[in-house]
Amino acid sequence: MRSLIIGIAAACGLTLAAGAASAQTVYIVRHAEKASDTERDPALSDAGMARSTALAALFAEDAPDLVVVSPMQRTRLTAAPTIEASGAFVAISPLDAGVEGHVETIRRGVMALPEDAVVLISGHSNTVPLIARALGYETPDMPECEYDRLIRIELRNGEVSGETLRYGAPSNC
What would the DSSP string read from start to end of 39-50? Predict the structure, then answer.
């Protein structure tokens, strides 16, 4: 399964970093709270670190095989406790082709994975809804103040089902 995941990820333009993979259950979250609104690539705040720990706790029983992040450190830091606990592969989806290219790279990568795979995608307020929609799940746009949305999508036999959940401390929107 490991070599299959590596091959699929590479073919879809995802860059694998250290970490074991599978995914037709897809979880999508926005990165946790940032330490700064003025830096281009800020780390997480204390609230963000607490949220990343809460995210890892959700996967204690059903760990992801693959975690997809953007090149921005806040997406990796959000998923870091989950990655450490699960040993999941990490795929970095580039932003070079813009938001549309980023979303399409992730969609292709997810759709190519085995049907028993579990994936966690850590994205941004402007990409989370687009990724969910690209996978066939309708969700509203995400306001800049929202950090607690967790989208769970099941892709089985050409059918899409999903739900929007909340995790960690409630967002202050």
Answer: SSS--B-HHHHH
